[in-house]
Structures are given as C-alpha cells and as structure tokens.
Amino acid sequence: MPSITREEVAHLAKLSRLELSDAELDHFAGQLDAIVSAVARVGELPTEHVPPTSHPQPLTNVFRADIVRPAGTPVLDRAEVLAQAPAAEDERFRVPRILGED
C-alpha cells in the first residue's frame, strides 16, 4: 500500500509555498495516504470487460435548437425586454452614472 510520509507532505507544502505546522504535516500525511490508498484500490478492480467512457451516464444536449434567422432580425422583442428593465429611456436601458460625467 502507498504511504505518504510527513517529509513528502513538507516537500509538497514547500513547493506550494504553504507554511504548515508539525501537527498539520502529520494530519495531512494521514489524509493524503488515505486518498492515495483509495485511488490504488480502484486500480485493482477487474475492468478488463468495461469499455472506456468519458461519462458514467449518457449525455443529453440541454440547449435549444438553433433557429436560422435573416441577418438583422432581433432574437428578443425590444418592447418586451425594456418592459422588464428597472428603468428605460429612448428605447434603451437607463443605468446610473458611474463616472460623474455631465
């Protein structure tokens, strides 16, 4: 079984520019050892007859279908969109000034 030593954790912490106390080094060494051991156990499973996959479940496209429109045709109705805005003026969204310009 793999065993992550305290010195290896200290080396990783140094590479990551992390300052760890002695108690943290011991704590993380145990945690990392448990993780590496769990991953090693997965590698022991009999998977000769399991085809490689990128996802455990089939993927479904959740996007809407593309609709071809003539160039310049708006996708949303301007009046409907502006009606939902907190403020509108001259068929545009009205927003507060942020630069204090006149």
TrEMBL record:
One Gene Ontology molecular-function label: glutaminyl-tRNA synthase (glutamine-hydrolyzing) activity
Ligase listed as a keyword: yes
Any Gene Ontology biological process: translation
Catalyzed reactions: L-glutamyl-tRNA(Gln) + L-glutamine + ATP + H2O = L-glutaminyl-tRNA(Gln) + L-glutamate + ADP + phosphate + H(+); L-aspartyl-tRNA(Asn) + L-glutamine + ATP + H2O = L-asparaginyl-tRNA(Asn) + L-glutamate + ADP + phosphate + 2 H(+)
UniProt signal peptide: none
Function comment: Allows the formation of correctly charged Asn-tRNA(Asn) or Gln-tRNA(Gln) through the transamidation of misacylated Asp-tRNA(Asn) or Glu-tRNA(Gln) in organisms which lack either or both of asparaginyl-tRNA or glutaminyl-tRNA synthetases. The reaction takes place in the presence of glutamine and ATP through an activated phospho-Asp-tRNA(Asn) or phospho-Glu-tRNA(Gln).
Name under which the protein is recorded: Aspartyl/glutamyl-tRNA(Asn/Gln) amidotransferase subunit C
Organism name: Actinocrinis puniceicyclus
Lineage: Bacteria, Bacillati, Actinomycetota, Actinomycetes, Catenulisporales
